[in-house]
Amino acid sequence: MNSILSLLMFFDPFFIAPFRMVSSPATGYLLGTAILALQCFILGDLSAMGVKFLNRKYLRKIQKEMDRNHHLSEKALMMGDKESYKAVNRQALDAFGHSFSLGGAVFCVSIWPMPFALAWMNLRFSDAPLELPVSIPLLGNSIHYFGSFLLIYIAVRITGSAIIGRLPWYSELTARLAGKKDSPSFHGFNF
């Protein structure tokens, strides 16, 4: 526990700076929390891309297996061979299960910075809830750091995903990592 506390205290000046950029405490809290959430999103997304890169051969293998089984099941269905269709469909569902599980693992990698950000926020804001100008059902007149960070993180993640997905270099990189052959090399790198 001491090592985590030391690490959080080491990064404290870096994390607290955005909270002090404006004079209003509430605005500073919201701005700082949004920047912290953005940092978590970017670091998590880069980590997920790294995991996809390291597992790219396995991801491609699963995708090829799903595609092959899908085409075989369609062919069996068109030919009216119900038994072959069921057998191939079971294999396709098994490959999909592997793909789904790996997707869940990659998502978990993408949110690994959140517990550290929340631990730091606990050090700084555990005794100072954000006072709201109005009473919100189920929340009341104030919101704890955990709830405010989570709401802001979700908004940052949704907005960030929509924006970053439209950037050509990012789309190209994710296509390459996914193993799509029709995408050109990324600045001379072939994945």
Features:
191 residues; mainly alpha; two-stranded antiparallel sheet; 7 helices; 2 strands
How would you describe what is shown here?
- The structure is a single chain.
- The chain is mostly helical.
- It has 7 helices and 2 strands; from the N terminus they run αααααββαα.
- A two-stranded antiparallel ribbon has the order 1-2.
SSE layout and pairings?
Elements (H helix, E strand, L loop, with lengths): L1 H15 L8 H30 L1 H24 L2 H29 L2 H13 L4 E7 L3 E4 L1 H20 L3 H11 L13
Antiparallel strand pairs: 1-2
Strand runs, count: 2
Name the beta content range.
5-15%
Biggest β-sheet, characterized? 2 strands, antiparallel
Termini gap:
39 Å
Q: How many domain modules?
A: 1
Rg to the nearest angstrom? 23 Å
| Helix fraction by DSSP (H/I, runs of at least 4) | over 70%
What's the average pLDDT?
85
Biggest sheet, spatial arrangement of strands: 1-2
- Unreliable spans are 182-191
Number of helical regions: 7
Global geometry: elongated
Structural class category: mainly alpha
H-E order: HHHHHEEHH
Write a brief caption for the model.
The chain is mostly helical and 191 residues long.
